[in-house]
Amino acid sequence: MSTLSVAIATFNESKNIARCLDAINQIADEIIIVDGKSTDNTLAILKRYPKVKVISTENKTNFHLNKQMAIDNCHSDWILQLDADEVVTTKLAREISRLLKIKDNTTLSDGYWIKRKNYFLGRFLTKGGVYPDPTIRLYRNGKGHLPCLSVHEQAVIEGNVGQLKHDLLHYADYSFSRYLLRNNRYTTLIAQEFMDHKLPINIFSFVYYFFVKPLYWFCLSYLLHRGYVDGFPGFVFAWYSSFRFPLAYIKYYELSLRQTGIDISRDWN
Predict the structure, then answer these.
(1) Residues of the domain holding 87
(2) Nearest CA among 23, 85, 31, 25 for reference residue 54
(3) Max Cα distance, the chain (Å)
(4) Helices 176-196 and 244-259 meet at what angle, rounded to 10?
(5) How far is CA 12 from CA 16, 35, 37, 118, 186, in A?
(6) Confidence class of residue 264 from pLDDT cuts 50, 70 and 90?
(7) Domain boundary at 157, 173, 189, which?
(8) What's this model's pTM, rounded to 2 decimal places?
(9) Does 160 lie in the same domain as 206?
């Protein structure tokens, strides 16, 4: 039977981490967690799990760097990369266990897509482009890595990629306040991407990111991908998701001012 490492990056995940670990503790041979110096009860919870190995580091702005650090420290045949707010369902755990028991590894892919259900405003969204939300999370050790360049990047697999049948549950937004907090973090990363690519600040980029891109995204999510099927949560998700583009543009503008030496915190009175 092949062995399985679970790789997770954490920072102040005391509300989520026990639920995540309870779901995979039986199928994992080791659990590698890179913690960004959590200040809540996360580390105390991790001590309850003998299979957990904790690596402490800085909580980097690009959190994919800590995820990749966890991946690099895995020793098993296979790696299951998870976020602390994700839960492997019983059916998915059984499916992974069956895969690990297959003796002829040549019949297996080098990586696998897993469908993900996202929790938002009291329910799991089923439309709006939010489901099935496929993500590559299971791969052979040494065959997958994270580029650590983009907010919503996928693992890069050296080889062929298959598909698992059962779902991964994602509890990222257990409250709307949590959604806004994560949205703030993501828009900051997008703004940095604009800076890295030297996006021109002019009337054309302003109109595109303030009007064209948000309207396109809302119509795509709510109408074309039928976000309306999820009722009020589906509308709110589509509406607020479209706002990430102007928010990121504003943050990028602010970063540009700082780069030119303008003190935006100055009291002009």
Answers:
(1) 4-173
(2) 31
(3) 73
(4) 50
(5) 9, 9, 8, 20, 17
(6) low
(7) 173
(8) 0.86
(9) no
